[in-house]
Amino acid sequence: MTMDSSGNEHACTAAAGAPVANGNSSSSDEQTDKFQMLDQWHSQPRKIRIVHVGAGATGLCAAWKMERKLENYELVCYEKNEDIGGTWLENRYPGCACDVPAHIYTYTFEPNPNWKSYYAYAPEIQEYFANFCDKYGLRKYVKFKHRVVGAVWHEDRGQWEVKVEHDGQTTTDWCDVLVNGSGLINRWKWPQIQGLHSFKGDLMHSAHWDDSKKWDGKRVAVLGNGSSAIQIVPQVQNTAAKLTSFMRGPTFITPPMERVKVDVPEKLQEADMPQTVLDPFVMQKAYTDAEIQTLRADPDYLLLYRKKIEYSINSNFGIFYKDSEASKMAGWYMRDIMKKRLKDHPVLTEKLIPQWAVGCRRLTPGDGYLEALIAPNVDFTFSPIERVDETGIITADGKHTEIDMLVCATGFDMAWTPHFKLLGRNGVDIKELWSPQPNCYLGLAAPGFPNYFVMNGPRGNLGNGTVLPCLETQIDYVCAAVKKMQTDRIKVLDVREDITDSLNEYVDAWCETSAFSAPCRSWYKNNTVDGKPMVWGGSSIHYLKTIKTPRWEHFNITYLDKNPWSFLGNGRIHAETISDFDGMTPYLRNADTPWELV
Ligand SMILES: Cc1cc2nc3c(=O)[nH]c(=O)nc-3n(C[C@H](O)[C@H](O)[C@H](O)COP(=O)(O)OP(=O)(O)OC[C@H]3O[C@@H](n4cnc5c(N)ncnc54)[C@H](O)[C@@H]3O)c2cc1C
Ligand SMILES: NC(=O)c1ccc[n+]([C@@H]2O[C@H](COP(=O)([O-])OP(=O)(O)OC[C@H]3O[C@@H](n4cnc5c(N)ncnc54)[C@H](OP(=O)(O)O)[C@@H]3O)[C@@H](O)[C@H]2O)c1
Questions:
Q1: Residues 264, 294 contacting (CB under 8 angstroms)
Q2: Which of 43, 108, 153, 160 has the least CB density, counted as fewest CB within 10 Å?
């Protein structure tokens, strides 16, 4: 067993007692150049160290999957926060909930029959991930309050040097594979508004909510009408003395859709008190005890229920083709319902209802949002904000709105680059290389940044449905890559630039046909109106199909050893080393079924 200067064991030698000095040296005799076999079995996995940045939904899933799919590896998840959860730990603003039904906002392999409501609120989602983490003992992989501040690629070693900040000190870690699961929507930012920080009242950001501040009976301003504002406004309006909504442009509010019904058996129906939804525009719904019992009692039924929800969402993808009949119908329907909900308010119907295609911005169920905007204690303005002073907001029309609390629901820094400095091949900074546009392969890899994977990266499936199946499949992809590097003794896996360019040609062409390229401002286009959408070119299941099978021919490969066949080892396979009866005879069958030699 050998250690490199960073203290890491180099597995190929450790595992096999092979005659190489470390994982990066050649198995050939350098003086005679004569091939020297490795003393290992065929495809014996070399040890690999993986650093994963973040312990949100992605980090936990990575820890879970790697335990089940990999062997002879080390994993550490560095997490800047004091707990797991990411999005759901940090976003605690009033009304924060998922925008897809909770039964499909779960890991695909870990259903939860106990969701309390159709769209679960942030604390319950956080509890789901915490339970998952503890049920499978995943905390052991996480180093909390450790922020990754930089990573530099070292070609000679085929490794990343990772700088980590903890308790005011910076330490160095090394890894063979770097996985960036630090969250696309994790870097919240204050809006650039003159005088914002001179405000003497409570200054809040949706993604950095201070629970100790109360708004009851106060005058509150909410900036923005994105997904966060849409959820905040009705909650605050309920008890605030006055709420003023500052908006810059139009947005679609998803109309009430038929909920997928739980078929409660007769014997449970008698005792049940079905919840009557009195307001047809309320989409949220608490599950009754009988419904939860029904879902708990039968895992097959729960699966069917989840599939029905997923199917209905996948079936609606047609609306994202901007000139399609489905898009026109959806636009007509949504505009009509918005008009009704706004009670034909002359200004709001003109300024809030978009003319661009449905789906250009993320669609959010806005329970009670439009109703709140026309409530007596609510005012709104589309006049641009000029500045903020100690007591309120001054708009371009010269009006000064006095407030006690200023809520910025103004979104995130969507620069698409990692939340830490990343220097790839030849010291190239990803921020420079990816300016003005990211150059990402399938939303998960980047040419020039070998052995690096980004989860939910640009040009992944970000625009529709739930991201969880996508991030799970991306992690499967990473596991497959790690396994290949281990068994084939690959030192460097670098996705090809030409292939990535060609892929982007496809995605650009697709985006032109889609609602994402309509003239709205959205974070898909880095908060611009006419930028390139950084979403996938197709439906979410189209994306899953694309990444389900890795295409290794899209990567430039450098092997650890001079001779790429050294993984063949000493001429035996693993089953032979342990005299495994079935393992040594799997191809003898009664029918032509698949077989494998491990
Ligand atoms: C308010 C809100 C609601 C959402 N609702 C939905 C929804 O309904 N459906 C849906 O599909 N998606 C939704 N999303 C997207 C959501 O972010 C993803 O569904 C999912 O939670 C992403 O998980 P993640 O682990 O990839 O990222 P995150 O949850 O963002 O976790 C990333 C983790 O990385 C850590 N981290 C970041 N930088 C560093 C660093 N430098 N060093 C160490 N650690 C670091 C963070 O602290 C965080 O814990 C929502 C997003 C927001 C903001
Ligand atoms: N599950 C959910 O329901 C949910 C909830 C919250 C967030 N999310 C996810 O997170 C993403 C981000 O949502 P978000 O609402 O936080 O951000 P967002 O969608 O980027 O919306 C930000 C809003 O703030 C406005 N704004 C930005 N800067 C401003 C400024 N300087 N002055 C005035 N207004 C300003 C924007 O105006 P413009 O319209 O002019 O750009 C926009 O209306 C969503 O798209 C979604 O993917 C999901």
A1: yes
A2: 108
